Backbone:
């Protein structure tokens, strides 16, 4: 188990957390390599199906991070995200997913250090939890195509 | 209406007349008091200036006892006691950690379900519901309604609406036939607990209140707090000594005024216990027609 | 089949220092769909960009992934390069190998592995990118300015002088706003009307400005460049074309006892009136609530005397519809009433007045002709107490913010009083003196040192009447701190500056946000101080926050320059990152079921209702439609949509799912 390196997917908004992570870079702060970031315009864009998809495709832990309350580039997207998150948490818990694998946070464009700290904390915590295998990896490429077949623009 | 009753120390000691008058007017006001069993000290000024936990634990125990006795509302006539009980309920409602801590100390279940009410609130409500047609001897005098601090501060606990210029007692006084004066000293400081340690300061502060009330033609000062009463009534000698003025204006509890208007015997209302005699020399001409004798001539100085 | 090109940048040694770029390029070449994969020292340099342009043409690329720095840095650069190479710029994506990888990790195999992952994620995304085209919307080059105070006047004149049409709407019968009421202005003591009235006249005479007074905004629809406003012109009860402003009507009007709003109730006016002699337009209106004819059905004296027969008792409100490209909200402020401070006795004692009332008393055109007289008996006060922060900076009872102008106008009032009543005594009670501004501190010092105004640092607890004097009881908190009492003849309360009572309603009409104090919210407190979060609406003056005249004028000019910038183009072009509602052929037409949950979630009111009808006009279904001019592309509606009928261009569900699958 000591060899296990978790994969953590971070869903971040473009205006605060993505920029905050850029600042971590320009400040040359170091953090664990285990994180992969998905850039979105706003946390309000996060359909929580995406989180389930991430778990379905090899993620061991998830970070969702956006602007602090009141700082949203789009006024209120992060509030929508937070409200949705409160409900989604319950659902995850009910479904038997260890909530320690999913972290919701606010990281502003000025909080480079907070981002590094957040990633390290989550990676360490998920490393201790071990690989994520409670949820059968049912959502394969085929199911993705099915999901996408109803999408716009086709 | 049955209502819990917490007398506190002063209603059994220095302001027995407040207790007596409240009990005397209760039937007419449609109130029935049930005293909190095994009640303790509210902590008063001493506890909350010395020990944070003690200041909440003492009132919390009283509230817990009231809860246990099945009370929904608790009348706390002493404004200082009211302030402590209401503040405790407010803080414990807001702060779950503190609530846990205090419950551990008092070793009793505490929910915070008992509403804490002061005398002004309860009497205003009762007067509106029950006094109609019962005023036999309208209290036809100019009165200065003195609210003091605890009914109006802090604003979170205040039951009066315009806390710097409250109107509730004025309205109640109009109901019993009195004419409240418009004055600016309704919520000024009387000196409070300094009554014991710095009588000189109290004499100055309370002196200003009395001076202005007299200046504006008030014939009586009406209060709802034993502490105010003590400072304005019992400390009158000190006030006069300091200001080199003589003031004969009496200080009445609002329950006593209501009692008089209901035609209750002054002695039952404890008027004889006052330091400053309750006397209205120029008996108002529009007082009830059947009372030809000078209204009240009861001195309490020898009591 | 996708043909993707991958371009790995070394960024000098910034990336290649910890990431094996050659290895990344090698592995990336094997990803399905990748037909070209190279690494280069500086991708953003000219030769680097040429590598991309050439590859697009030679390899017939259908998508490009540039693995370099943050897209927040160079995405525009590489998208432009792709466009120049003949590829739709939105078919270019960036993998952030520098800020998110090489700079934050040590030189380890894991770092290179992560870099490869990042490239793969973007390759999967870009395969699903679609060509997008910038959205162009036409611009109506007319601005609507709401409010005719100094903010509105300045904005309107600046926009008009830049050559654009302006429609100004003012609720009162005259423009001028609060500034017209002021006596002299700090710190120079310029006469307020002397500097303002020429501007008012300029507005009225400017060929580019259409002025509607006694009018209000009724409705505002549309979006940047294309607003449609409905203006309610309240009935003035006169024919403006015939009226010459001769003034016979208000000389003859028998109802002379109406308290004048302009004179802050310290003077009177008639029922047919002009608010003040220098009013623009200088034509009267009939105040129907006080007019005897409208109230009692008799009088019509003004009609009888009017030499041009301009009185129109039967005039109705008129609704005017206008098309505008931009809106400047400059609706100003109101003075907070003082009833929440019963201890200060405002309203109870006539000689306790507000700062704005003092302005009228001190004004040469005011009800006393500039002589400071007590409202109660007309005596000249020998002692005045000024109370700063009467409501401001008092979260318990008043408002928590600082009204910003009171320190200065209180100093000015005290100074004006001392200039007019030399032997008079003036006291100022204050918390702090906030005199930040050019020559402001010097002005206050002059008040204290040269004009000998007594400044008392402390609050006032109560004001009451004692034998005809106003007893001001407060505390002096400086050396020798002690309670003090002053017997004053008059008290001036520096009441707080608050939002207009209907500010909330106006904000909702314009669909812009406002803060807890009902002041309109700018888009960014530092970097976008005159724009609002609804594109095309700008803000100036005290409707945004308390501010003084210089600041108001500066903000108004800034808003005007933003409007002029917007009007400098015939069409607006913006990034096509917007939401779209799916549409298909019959019989479904769309997955959208018309629940309009999205409508409640959209912060920009960009969701419209679209009715799908048969050829003969029968309604088939109502679906959501995104107004692309208004949508800002946050995607909140996408996440909320129950039927997954909305998607966000550039961040589609398909693209993000693909990114996740490639993990």
Residues:
């Amino acid at each position: 188990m000591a060899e296990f390196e978790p994969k953590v997917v971070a869903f971040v908004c473009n205006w605060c957390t993505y920029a905050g992570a850029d600042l971590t870079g320009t400040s040359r702060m170091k953090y664990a390599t285990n994180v992969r970031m998905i850039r979105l315009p706003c946390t309000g864009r996060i359909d929580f199906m995406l989180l389930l998809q991430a778990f379905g495709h090899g993620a061991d832990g998830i970070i969702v991070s956006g602007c602090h309350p009141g700082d949203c580039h789009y006024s209120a997207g992060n509030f929508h995200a937070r409200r949705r998150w409160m409900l989604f948490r319950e659902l995850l818990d009910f479904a038997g997913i260890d909530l320690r694998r999913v972290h919701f946070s606010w990281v502003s464009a000025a909080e480079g250090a907070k981002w590094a700290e957040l990633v390290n904390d989550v990676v360490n915590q998920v490393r201790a939890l071990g690989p994520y295998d409670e949820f059968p990896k049912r959502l394969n490429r085929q199911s993705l195509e099915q999901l996408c077949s109803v999408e716009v623009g086709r | 209406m049955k209502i819990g009753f917490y007398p506190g120390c002063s209603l059994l000691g220095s302001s027995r007349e407040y207790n007596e008058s409240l009990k005397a007017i209760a039937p007419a006001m449609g109130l029935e008091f049930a005293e909190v069993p095994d009640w303790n000290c509210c902590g008063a000024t001493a506890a909350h200036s010395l020990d944070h936990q003690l200041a909440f634990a003492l009132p919390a125990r009283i509230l817990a006892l009231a809860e246990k006795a099945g009370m929904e509302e608790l009348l706390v006539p002493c404004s200082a006691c009211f302030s402590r009980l209401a503040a405790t309920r407010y803080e414990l409602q807001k702060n779950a950690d503190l609530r846990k801590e205090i419950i551990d100390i008092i070793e009793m279940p505490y929910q915070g379900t008992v509403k804490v009410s002061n005398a002004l609130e309860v009497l205003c409500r009762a007067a509106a519901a029950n006094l109609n047609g019962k005023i036999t001897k309208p209290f036809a005098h100019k009165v200065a309604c003195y609210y003091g601090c605890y009914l109006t501060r802090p604003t979170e606990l205040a039951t009066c609406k315009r806390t710097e210029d409250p109107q509730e007692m004025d309205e109640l006084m109009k109901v019993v036939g009195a004419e409240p004066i418009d004055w600016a000293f309704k919520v000024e400081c009387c000196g409070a607990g300094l009554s014991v340690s710095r009588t000189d300061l109290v004499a100055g502060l309370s002196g200003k209140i009395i001076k202005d009330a007299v200046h504006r033609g008030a014939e009586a000062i009406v209060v709802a707090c034993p502490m105010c009463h003590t400072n304005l009534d019992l400390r009158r000698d000190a006030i006069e000594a300091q200001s080199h003025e003589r003031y004969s204006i009496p200080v009445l509890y609002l329950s006593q005024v209501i009692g008089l208007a209901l035609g209750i015997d002054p002695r039952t209302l404890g008027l004889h216990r006052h330091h400053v005699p309750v006397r209205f020399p120029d008996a108002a001409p529009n007082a009830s027609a059947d009372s030809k004798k000078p209204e009240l001539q009861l001195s309490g100085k020898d009591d | 089949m996708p043909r993707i090109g991958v371009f790995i940048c070394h960024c000098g040694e910034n990336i290649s220092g910890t990431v094996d770029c050659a290895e990344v390029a090698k592995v990336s070449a094997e990803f399905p769909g990748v037909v070209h994969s190279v690494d280069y020292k500086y991708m953003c340099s000219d030769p680097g960009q040429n590598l991309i342009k050439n590859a697009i043409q030679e390899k017939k690329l259908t998508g490009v992934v540039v693995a370099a720095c943050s897209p927040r840095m160079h995405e525009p650069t590489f998208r432009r390069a792709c466009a120049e190479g003949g590829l739709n710029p939105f078919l270019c994506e960036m993998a952030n190998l520098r800020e998110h990888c090489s700079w934050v990790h040590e030189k380890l195999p894991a770092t290179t592995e992560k870099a490869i992952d990042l490239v793969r994620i973007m390759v999967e995304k870009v395969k699903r990118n679609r060509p997008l085209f910038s959205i162009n919307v036409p611009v109506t080059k007319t601005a609507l300015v709401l409010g005719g105070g100094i903010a509105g006047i300045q904005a309107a004149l600046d926009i008009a002088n830049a050559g654009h049409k302006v429609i100004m709407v003012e609720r009162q019968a005259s423009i001028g706003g609060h500034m017209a009421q002021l006596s002299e202005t700090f710190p120079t003591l310029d006469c307020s009307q002397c500097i303002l009235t020429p501007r008012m006249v300029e507005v009225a005479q400017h060929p580019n400005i259409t002025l509607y007074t006694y009018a209000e905004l009724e409705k505002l629809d549309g979006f940047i460049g294309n607003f449609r406003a409905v203006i309610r012109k309240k009935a003035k009860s006169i024919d403006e074309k015939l009226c010459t402003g001769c003034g016979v009507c208000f000389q003859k009007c028998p109802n002379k006892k109406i308290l004048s709003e302009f004179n802050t109730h310290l003077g009177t006016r008639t029922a047919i009136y002009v608010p003040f002699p220098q009013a623009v337009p200088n034509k009267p209106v009939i105040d129907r609530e006080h007019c005897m004819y409208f109230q009692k059905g008799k009088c019509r004296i003004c009609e009888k005397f009017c030499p041009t027969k301009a009185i129109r008792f039967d005039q109705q409100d008129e609704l005017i519809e206008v098309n505008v490209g931009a809106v400047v909200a400059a609706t100003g402020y109101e003075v907070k009433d003082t009833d929440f401070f019963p201890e200060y006795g405002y309203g109870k004692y006539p000689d306790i007045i507000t700062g704005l009332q003092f302005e009228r008393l001190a004004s040469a055109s005011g009800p006393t002709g500039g002589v400071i007289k007590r409202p109660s008996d007309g005596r000249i006060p020998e002692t005045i107490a000024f109370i700063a922060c009467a409501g401001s900076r008092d979260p318990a009872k008043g408002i928590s913010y600082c009204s910003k102008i009171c320190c200065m106008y209180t100093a000015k009032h005290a100074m004006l009083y001392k200039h007019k009543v030399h032997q008079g005594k003036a006291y100022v009670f204050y918390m702090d003196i906030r005199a930040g501004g050019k020559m402001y501190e010097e002005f206050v010092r002059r008040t204290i040192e040269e004009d000998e105004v007594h400044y008392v640092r402390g609050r006032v607890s109560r004001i009451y009447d004692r034998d005809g004097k106003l007893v001001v009881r407060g505390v002096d908190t400086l050396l020798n701190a002690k309670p003090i009492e002053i017997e004053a003849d008059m008290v001036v309360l520096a009441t707080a500056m608050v939002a207009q009572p209907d500010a909330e309603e106006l904000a909702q009409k314009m669909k812009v946000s406002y803060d807890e104090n009902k002041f309109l919210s700018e888009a960014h407190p530092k970097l976008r101080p005159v724009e609002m979060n609804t594109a095309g609406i700008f803000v100036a003056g005290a409707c945004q926050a308390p501010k003084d005249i210089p600041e108001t004028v500066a903000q108004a000019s800034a808003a005007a320059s933003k409007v002029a910038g917007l009007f400098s183009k015939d069409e607006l072009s913006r990034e096509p990152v917007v939401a779209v509602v799916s549409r298909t052929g019959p019989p479904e037409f769309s997955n959208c079921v018309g629940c309009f949950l999205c409508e409640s979630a959209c912060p920009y009111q960009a969701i419209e209702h679209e009715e799908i009808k048969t050829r003969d006009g029968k309604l088939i279904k109502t679906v959501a439609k995104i107004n692309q001019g208004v949508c800002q592309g946050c995607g909140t509606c996408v996440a909320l949509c129950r039927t997954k009928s909305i998607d966000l261009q550039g961040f589609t569900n398909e693209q993000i799912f693909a990114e996740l699958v490639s993990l």
About this structure: The longest helix of chain B spans residues 52-68. DSSP finds twelve helices and ten strands in chain B. The longest strand of chain B covers residues 2-5.
